[in-house]
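Technical annex B. To support the medicinal chemistry partners, we prepared a structural model of the target in complex with aspartic acid, based solely on the information shown next.
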Amino acid sequence: MIEITKFALSYKKIKMYRTHSNGELRLTNVGQEVTLVGWVQKTRDKGFMMWVDLRDRYGITQLIFDEDRTPKEMMEKAKTLGREFVIQVKGEVIERVSRNSNISTGDIEILVKELTILNKSLVPPFTIEDETDGGDELRMKYRYLDIRRNPVRENLIFRHKVAIEVRKYLSDKDFIEVETPVLIKSTPEGARDFVVPSRMNAGQFYALPQSPQTFKQLLMVGGLDKYFQIVKCFRDEDLRADRQPEFTQIDCEMAFVEQEDVLNTFEGLTRHLLKEINGVEVADFPRMTYDEAMKKYGNDKPDIRFGMEFGELNEVAKHKEFSVFNNAELVVGIAVPGGNSYTRKEIDKLIEWIKRPQVGALGMVYSRCNDDGTFKSSVDKFYDEADLAKWAEITGAKAGDLICVLSGNTDKVRTQLSALRMELATRLGLRKPNEFAPLWVVDFPLLEWDEESKRFHAMHHPFTSPKPEDMHLLDTDPGKVRANAYDMVLNGNEIGGGSIRIHDKATQALMFDHLGFTPEEAKDQFGFLMNAFEYGAPPHGGLAFGLDRLVAILGGQETIRDFIAFPKNNSGRDVMIDAPSKIDETQLKELNLKLDLKL
Ligand code: ASP
């Protein structure tokens, strides 16, 4: 009892910076003496009266300085205030004459009696408003000012909420969050590593993890059974728009599971997030094989919020007089809803669009589906009404639609038509940010041929288990072997991917052999894992979600950078702290490094 009183007394003595936040006061507070702190959003000076909008993370409260009621020296101090000054005010909550229904505190204002300037501010280089006049580079250089803006702050809070829900869901399901090391060993497989020179081991380097893959597998050998970690990963890849050299994964692994168990668990997590964060109940969670996704959508991460599925036309379009189709490996089309309304000029523009080097199609054949049930195609010379009716049937085109047809090498043409499908869907407004259509793509190929190195690479990673029923093809037709690997796709984005792992030394050694490792190389780089497999490694599998992308999609936006507090720019630079940067001679020497740059 005595203790509590003592605490209460000392607590009272603490000088409080504020009694309320700037989003808090209402009519019910009128008459109260309050203390507020925050940043000056804007000032309006009428001479004898002055208003200041005071902002903090929680909102804006209007302050009023009035010649008759505010002490003179405070009035004078108020005149010196500039944008983004940090101030503290004491005053009385009064009812506002002209109310502002746009803000939560719009019914009241604070009649200021005392003003303290806690810190001054230079004039910010861009406006701290929802719609700012600052360009990207400037906003990044002064990211701490950008974070004061509502949309950026809200995105960071949104990300926090998603992370909390992930932790809640997985912890409830007995997953344990374990931290794995950041200074690890470099391996040539996968993307390029970021490396860190070791001062104490001259000439030797650590690498930053591209993912905690081997560690989470070792945790399964360690008997932890269910692991997760919200973890930074690093990949030194050539930067594409909206890719970050450091990014965050929700990394997960489970022991004693088959593919079905993993899919069900993380379907559950996704459902939970969509429900808690977006208030959306997902009815269907379809599964599609990789082959089916490629055939129907030309893509292993199909956006299934809308139709426009591919119709393969080889059967009905080849073996006529049209040599372009006859010489093609694949003739394939999509029906564009309402596309018959496009003018000739608009269609020509579309053809130009797919001929751009980024898409690379050689041309496009089309057929209009008229309202009276007739067709009019760009290849009327070779195809009659009956032929075109078959095209319509196969692509699912209805009266009023436009059938777009591409032809050529199967892989290329699928990629090109997929690009066209996504572009048209965007133009038609079919990719609604508030609609969510997740699915699993399963049965990925185990290996993928790389033209450059003229050898097979692991499509997912070298620890992925081949499907036992396909193992016999490893020697004869390696490209045909399917893996127990899966991706979760949401609205045309791969948001997660994983696999059932190899858990015995012999299969892992066989896999390394197929990937072109000598037994010595395999031992040198992954000996620790293969050794662990000899000490009772349980069957296991898992996956990792990309948190940055997931958060952006749940937030109904496209750019991940908007959901990262301090992102790097498109050349991988942090323009605020100016990194990467040179290090000085002494540091280099300590690290036993000599630079020989021919710049
Ligand atoms: N480590 C993998 C990745 O980063 C995910 C997994 O297989 O669990 O893509």
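Notes passed to the chemistry partners:
Residues 150-172 form the longest helix (23 residues).
The radius of gyration is 31 Å.
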